[in-house]
Amino acid sequence: MSKQIEISPGVAPAIILVEPQLAENIGMTARAMANFGLSELRLVNPKNGWPKKGVREAASGATHVLDAARIFDSVPEAIADLHYVLATTARERGQMKRVLAPEAAMTEVARREGQGVGVMFGRERVGLTNDEVSLADAIVTFPVSADFPSLNLAQGVLLMGYEWRRATGRAALPFTGELLSPPATRQAMLSLFASLEEGLAAAGFYPPEKREIIARNMRDMLHRMAMTEQDVRTFRGALRALSRHAAAPSND
Amino acid sequence: MSKQIEISPGVAPAIILVEPQLAENIGMTARAMANFGLSELRLVNPKNGWPKKGVREAASGATHVLDAARIFDSVPEAIADLHYVLATTARERGQMKRVLAPEAAMTEVARREGQGVGVMFGRERVGLTNDEVSLADAIVTFPVSADFPSLNLAQGVLLMGYEWRRATGRAALPFTGELLSPPATRQAMLSLFASLEEGLAAAGFYPPEKREIIARNMRDMLHRMAMTEQDVRTFRGALRALSRHAAAPSND
To answer: Do A99 and B173 touch (CB under 8 A)?
Structure first.
């Protein structure tokens, strides 16, 4: 199902893949972009042609990104109309260049809202050339484990999209915890403490010299629950049922 | 190549996949975990058996995670020894439950360092059941675009690993910008301004009434460069070469 997603030019960063090879990576890149509201994909000289067999399947529904993808012959052409370009790279390049973490990079991008921004990703095996890196304003690298630094292309794209969303205040959660009932008043809590403690005392629960300590610890347990009015009603109901049942064991 | 990675129990969260189906997703999950220093994978009742054909290839070298994976028959068994469990879900579940963004969730996890923590991911198509969600301490959901909310399993794992690393102070970049030369002193900068401005004046660059304004703007350009000592030397050298060349055009 093809979706029409409207993103104003210059709002979200363009994702630029330089000589990408695997259909799976490009498709998953499109999906990762769509997940975080990016839609502008630029492909520089895709290896072995374009479009690629299997890329639409790998996009898992994000085919609108693929359909709108623009193809360029070189990096200079792909970045010409942009105002700020980041180059992702795993290895130090011996260039005097600012190196940013994804979060910091997207803070920079957020400051440039309204400008054309691009994030370049290199070839699956060898990444970007030093020359291509030098065409970018700054380097982005990912805080990966030194034991296993090789990050899949689409995974890198996902992280940049995620951090863009966070940096530009778009990272609202799809839903938040429903407060199905308001918090219990302190009166309701104190009343519950009393009922609970009376019930436990009647049941012979407290060792004689430990009643105060145990009661206070149980009050803390109930405080930690952050009980709602409904929670208190449920808890009281359970207490009553247990007490009634204990009072009339022949009702089993 | 199999790596031996030492992570102390209770240090990094366990990733728990509930009835995962696709070898590709499990393999890519292992890779995503390795990228961010997670190594404990728990599989609950993998669909169509374990191990799966193709999973090692999809792990792209992170086979140590697969080899150490533990298989469980049910969620209760998989989480029994843990102290704090998060359930990832894309949809609201009608439960009174705290819903956390990945960053907030990993802040909670960071507070529990030394405790056993698990992050549960559900089946590719239907996610976790409401019952399974109720066994977790809290829900995590991702700040995806409402237009395209379906996040690939391994991508969700990657985001959790990334945020864990950030929350626990482990997100150092593999390299930072090399300061190949110290910043230029103000004397070097002022001297450069003077040379540049004298050279441009001699070349008749400035319109008469605009020299001050243009000169000040160019000083700002040079300030924005944040020039190092080496930058100044390079720039001076370029200026001299241009001036010499201009002085002796017959040398072309």
So the answer is: yes
